[in-house]
Design brief:
By secondary structure, this protein is mainly β. It has one helix and eight strands. The protein has a five-stranded antiparallel beta sheet, with no helix packed on it. Strands 4-1-8 form a three-stranded mixed beta sheet, with no helix packed on it. The radius of gyration is 44 Å and the shape is rod-shaped. It comes from Bradyrhizobium quebecense.
């Protein structure tokens, strides 16, 4: 009976060790501050992982696991999306894990929007072109008035 109790106790203690992990001693990574700016300033900047603000500004994001993007929007300017690369280096017993972002700060130069696109041709009424004057038909030889291209009539003899 003593053997059964010893074997059961050893089995339970080994089962408890299998769930033990050193990760439980590590703290959750702190949130990161991301600086956002644009030229011209005052654009709406929104990250693909959630938070956003009006430039120049800073947003707090949870330490990202993967790359993300920041989209900048401003009236009368073209929208611009900037990809952000996340590089993680694991820590060890002497140093914590680090996460770096590239670019940092995230900057976008917004380009002015072009003129609004012209409407489709089918939607605009077509302007009618004036018809050219009809060409004169050649006159018949017995017509009362000769054609302008005909030779002038012979001159009459002078009377005395």
């Amino acid at each position: 009976m003593r053997r059964i109790i010893v074997i059961a106790a050893a089995g339970l203690s080994l089962a408890g060790c299998s769930s033990f992990s050193l990760d439980s001693f590590k703290s959750a990574p702190p949130p990161m501050q991301v600086q956002l700016d644009s030229a011209p300033q005052g654009a709406d900047a929104v990250t693909s992982i959630g938070p956003g603000c009006k430039t120049p500004c800073s947003v707090s994001i949870p330490a990202p696991e993967a790359n993300f993007t920041v989209t900048f929007n401003m009236p009368k300017f073209q929208s611009t999306t900037v990809p952000v690369t996340v590089t993680r280096s694991p820590g060890d017993f002497t140093s914590p894990a680090t996460t770096t972002l590239d670019p940092s700060p995230v900057f976008a130069e917004l380009q002015p929007a072009g003129p609004p696109p012209r409407g489709h041709k089918a939607m605009r009424p077509k302007k009618k072109k004036p018809k050219p004057a009809a060409a004169a038909a050649p006159a018949a030889p017995d017509a009362a008035f000769p054609a302008p291209s005909a030779a002038p009539p012979p001159a009459a003899a002078p009377t005395r």
